[in-house]
């Protein structure tokens, strides 16, 4: 038994860590909350929350970055990656000159959001972006995000195999309310009521699904956390503010599925 354990330990020790695994081993779980340059953002307030990096939807407030690690959700530069052109097209008018002093602290980039990988043209463009960007920014972790169930198993597997993302990520927000008719008699009078209780099975099934892909392709999993409320009129979906205990569950269940990056959506919107 001792000999067998020694052999197993040697095998584990000799296994080469991926870039994202090495980052996680050094820095721990990635915790962030996505902000926009149009929001009020105070660095001392954000730092006090315990997040491990800033995360920006579009161009960051560069004057708030300091020496902090940071991440960004970026729009497609149109396929082939060119650093100068890419920095020029960031939302908010950021350019390479403004961003260059902070690139050494750029932890990760999310390419677009919920792009339809089931479309072959979108798929090939996204794969090419990952290949080109990894050459330009070899020390930056790259990933894409899709809503739960958006991408088929076959497409997701092909994407991971061809694009080699450093993380795989999905979003699903389980804390909702339901519309019920109001008391005025007007059918357009709709009132929102919290939908409380029950187990968010759909969300947990996606955690399981992405965890299985993470195991199969040796890639860490990331997911978005619900810290917002919103009404989607086109789908009659009402996302409500989660309670404190629900936010605890949102994070702890994700961690139980070995998720390594938790991204709040959205900070101070």
The gist of it:
The chain is 37% helix and 23% strand.
What number is the mean pLDDT?
82
Which sheet architecture does the biggest sheet show?
Answer: 8 strands, parallel, barrel
- How big a fraction of the residues is strand? 15-25%
Question: Could you state the oligomeric state of the chains shown?
Answer: single chain
Count of DSSP strands: 12
Which blocks of ≥5 consecutive residues have pLDDT under 50? 1-14, 77-94
Number of helices: 10
What is the topology?
Blueprint: H1 2-14, H2 19-27, E1 30-35, H3 43-48, E2 54-57, H4 62-65, E3 70-74, H5 83-88, H6 96-99, E4 106-111, H7 120-136, E5 141-147, H8 153-163, E6 167-171, E7 176-181, E8 190-194, H9 201-217, E9 221-226, E10 230-232, E11 237-239, H10 244-256, E12 261-265
Parallel strand pairs: 1-2, 1-12, 2-3, 3-4, 4-5, 5-6, 6-9, 9-12
Antiparallel strand pairs: 7-8, 7-11, 10-11
Describe the fold and architecture.
- With 269 residues, the protein is an alpha/beta fold.
- Helices cover 37% and strands 23% of the residues.
- It contains ten helices and twelve strands.
- An eight-stranded parallel β-barrel has the order 1-2-3-4-5-6-9-12, surrounded by four helices. Strands 8-7-11-10 form a four-stranded antiparallel beta sheet, with no helix packed on it.
- It is globular, with a radius of gyration of 20 Å.
List keywords for this structure.
12 strands; 269 residues; 4-stranded antiparallel sheet; alpha/beta
């Amino acid at each position: 038994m001792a000999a067998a354990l020694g052999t197993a330990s040697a095998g584990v020790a000799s296994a080469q860590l991926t870039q994202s695994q090495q980052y996680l081993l050094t820095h721990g779980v990635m915790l962030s909350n996505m902000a926009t340059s149009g929001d009020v953002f105070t660095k001392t307030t954000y730092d006090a929350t315990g997040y491990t990096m800033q995360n920006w939807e579009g161009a960051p407030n560069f004057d708030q970055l300091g020496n902090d690690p940071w991440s960004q959700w970026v729009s497609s530069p149109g396929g082939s990656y060119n650093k100068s052109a890419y920095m020029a097209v960031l939302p908010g008018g950021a350019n390479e000159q403004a961003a260059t002093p902070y690139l050494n602290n750029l932890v990760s980039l999310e390419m677009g959001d919920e792009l339809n990988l089931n479309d072959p043209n979108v798929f090939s463009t996204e794969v090419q972006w990952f290949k080109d960007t990894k050459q330009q920014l070899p020390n930056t972790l790259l990933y894409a995000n899709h809503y739960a169930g958006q991408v088929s198993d076959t497409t997701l597997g092909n994407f991971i195999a061809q694009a080699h993302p450093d993380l795989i990520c999905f979003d699903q927000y389980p804390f909702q309310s339901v519309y019920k008719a109001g008391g005025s008699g007007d059918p357009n009078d709709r009132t929102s009521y919290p939908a409380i209780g029950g187990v968010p099975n759909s969300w947990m099934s996606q955690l399981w699904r992405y965890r299985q892909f993470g195991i199969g392709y040796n890639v860490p999993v990331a997911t978005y956390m619900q810290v917002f409320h919103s009404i989607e009129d086109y789908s009659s979906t009402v996302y409500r503010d989660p309670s404190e205990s629900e936010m605890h569950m949102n994070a702890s269940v994700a961690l139980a599925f070995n998720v390594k990056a938790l991204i709040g959506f959205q900070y101070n919107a």
